[in-house]
Design brief:
Elements lengths: L1 H15 L2 H11 L4 H29 L3 E2 L2 E2 L1 H23 L22 H9 L2 H15 L5 H15 L1 H13 L3 H40 L1
Antiparallel strand pairs: 1-2
């Protein structure tokens, strides 16, 4: 199980350091319904990770993701596809980065967070494409280890816990400091917004290289 946790750890860090979900939770915490919306965000976030993990581990188990302790060929090809998706995100984000002191462009939906109902916030937290892609990759990484199903579930739970540190930090600041947290959260949002494109590009590039490199190594060994 240690190998499965270790293999998925870089992916968990990638999710945890993703700026957009952290900006989203800061916006939620400064919205009109901060407490109810923050609860909806947490539930949506955990639900999204849980659903992806359940689907990937179930499908991988039925399709024999591990053969004699080694990854099945289809898992390696799936990791190449997932890695290619991350490379595409890296290129798009890097090309869209702010230049020459320009204001960082954030997703349009962020302007509507203040008026969102808890149901909408739930969906927002559950359906982050990049994070779901990384969660899928983590599920495949764990499934290919060939460990028993119960241990796979524990390994994925560890992944989800570490992946939630990023969005959990603003929540902890908010509930620990109350109104005093507003200035700190605003500064965090500003910094993440300005560096969003570069951070995401680097994370996706590194993780894509990891996935594709491991897949090529497994296919040629």
């Amino acid at each position: 199980m240690g190998q499965a946790i270790g293999g998925s750890l870089p992916l968990a860090i990638g999710v945890a350091l993703s700026p957009v979900p952290m900006i989203a939770v800061v916006l939620v915490l400064t919205s009109r319904q901060a407490r109810s919306n923050s609860l909806a965000f947490v539930i949506g976030w955990l639900t999204g990770l849980a659903v992806v993990g359940t689907i990937v581990l179930t499908v991988a188990g039925e399709a024999d993701a591990s053969v004699d302790g080694s990854p099945a060929a289809w898992v390696s090809w799936a990791k190449i596809v997932l890695g290619a998706g991350l490379l595409l995100i890296a290129v798009r984000r890097f090309r869209g980065r702010p230049r020459n002191g320009d204001e960082a462009a954030l997703p349009r939906w962020m302007a509507t967070v203040d008026t969102m109902k808890p149901v909408a916030v739930f969906g927002l937290a559950a359906a982050s494409p990049k994070n779901l892609l990384l969660a899928t990759s983590a599920g495949a990484e764990i499934a290919q280890s060939g460990i028993p199903t119960a241990q796979q579930a524990v390994a994925y739970a560890v992944f989800a816990l570490i992946a939630s540190i990023g969005v959990g930090t603003p929540l902890a600041i908010y509930y620990a400091m109350g109104r005093r947290s507003q200035v700190l959260l605003a500064s965090l949002k500003s910094w993440l917004g300005h560096h969003n494109a570069v951070i995401v590009s680097v994370l996706c590039l590194v993780l894509a290289t990891k996935l594709i490199g491991e897949a090529i190594g497994a296919l040629t060994s």
